[in-house]
Amino acid sequence: MSSTPHIFPTVPTSSSLVPKQRGASTGHRVSAKGLQTKAHIIDAALQLAMHNGLESLSIGGLAEVTQMSKSGVFAHFGSREELQISVIREYHQRFEQEVFYPAMQVARGLPRLRALFDNWMKRTTIELDSGCIYISGAIEFQDNIGPVREALVNSVGTWHAALRRTIEQCKELGDLPVDADADQILSEIHGLILVLHYEARFLRSAGALQRALTGFEHILQRCGDRAAATPKA
Fold first, then answer.
1. Against a cut of 0.90, is the pTM above it?
2. Residue 82 to residue 62: CA distance in whole angstroms
3. 59-66 helix and 80-95 helix, angle to the nearest 10 degrees
């Protein structure tokens, strides 16, 4: 049984994907005000993207929202593509903080798997009023090969890897059968989130949240975990 704690693999930050700020090559630090301004722009862009999609973002539109000049916004990102990638990185970082890291404080195995799903559900219920960039982005960029799609795929892949590892730990600890298919369980759990978005946001179907929670328990029961018969309150 592995005793090594699982570390969430970090997706490269936007700073590694965009040109360095002016002055970086000569050793000058980016000013605190400049960093604050960039963070403000990314936050505004993230809110727009969650409601209207990544493709809705533009340098001009964001300049209007933030009451900045187009050249001022452009100076921080250089292109619309780099802006979109920065938004994806910010979204991923917030996802980590809200979903992954709190669950790492919970015991390995089934308690941690439940915590990951519970945290994911909490975030999902909030996003029902706005939107999930992972879901909307998959539609917008499913056939659009390039850096933005790659950033989305890497972010989702990173989250899947962490969730899959937690499922494997459940098997190692005996909480799930050793022959349980981790990829199948992962796919079904992710499917619950996708269906929840569809039912709750599009169909406005009552009881969608409870059905997702029940579906999670059914997955565990079918796989034969030893605690599914007595889920936490």
1. no
2. 13
3. 60
Identify the residue whose tokens are 């903080």.
Answer: 97
Name residue 73's amino acid: V
Question: Residue 179, SS3?
Answer: coil
For 231: left if phi > 0, alpha if psi spans -120 to 50, otherwise beta; the answer is beta
Residue corresponding to tokens 């993230």:
46
86, 77 contact by CB (below 8 A): yes
- By the 8 A CB rule, do 78 and 19 touch? yes
pLDDT in tens, 174-212: 999 999 999 999 999 999 999 999 999 889 999 999 999
E strands within the chain?
A: none
Enter the tokens of residue 163. Answer: 């969730």
Angle, helices 80-95/147-172, rounded to nearest 10 degrees: 20
Q: State residue 227's pLDDT score.
A: 53
- Other C-beta atoms closer than 10 Å to the C-beta of 39 total 12
